[in-house]
Specification:
six-stranded mixed β-sheet; alpha/beta
Amino acid sequence: MARKTATTATTATTATTATTATTTSTTDDALAPVTLAVGQEDLLLDRAVQHVVAAARAADADTDVRELTPDALQPGTLAELTSPSLFAERKVVVVRNSQDLSADTVKDVKAYLSAPAEEITLVLLHAGGPKGKALLDAARKAGAREVACPKMTKPADRLAFVRSEFRGAGRSATPEACQALVDAIGSDLRELASACSQLAADVEGTIDDAVVARYYTGRAEASSFTVADRAVEGRTAEALEALRWSLATGVAPVLITSALSQGVRAIGKLASAPRGMRPGDLARELGMPPWKIDRVRQQMRGWSADGVSAALRAVAEADGAVKGGGDDPGYALEKAVVAVARAARPARRR
């Protein structure tokens, strides 16, 4: 049977599965003989696979996709899956958790890497790190297309992810909206991606923080950063209300003390920054995006150096209490929130 060829480019087909993972090899051909997806972010690993599968099916709608775990990939299995087919069908063979492959199976994979079969795309998902490093090195040496899928542990990484999701959907979202969404949803990348998709589909025009608050009422209010924002603004009653809601909905106390600390420290950093610096230089100096500097500048009115010191001491005491040094984390957090709000501005101390 003659091989079917795609009549259209794969770009449109793969656009919906575009990933924020970074391709680190010299080729970005999704149909390269071997793709190596490295990292522990499950969503990005899945997207790396989806991107390859979409490209393969754009070239041949009848592409056969096989997904295997280490226990299913025994010695000889890969040779069987990649042996020439009578019908010259295209295949995508996905090996998950390849760092856990047995030594004998790793030998099979290494042998295949030296002479990959035509019409076969092998996708190796590897967690990175020392386990299974020999296979990782062999795939890189063989010139595999590599896609980085690192775990997004930093808030800044998740914020960049949200921005990328909206850009990929062809939508405009304000910096405040992106931050509000991260604050509301948290660290789960799948939930963040789902929220971005929902907002992009449902909302016309620019997506702003008011839209995010409307869609995620309760979750946004339960954010540890909402507690911190209200406290550093001196809005005691609202900060306490947000705190109680946060605790009632399961926000970890340690996240609240962390957010309070970040909020107060941001005010201290901006207050001590050299005057007259250009916005871009100031952002780089303080490690904050420009929009956050604008927000902190509004929040810091009325703060003094003594107020920052007192607030940081109160937050440190609460942090020790919620980490086992006290009997009532909720009470410790309330004391810290009140202390921060009182330090914020003389006119708002009541």
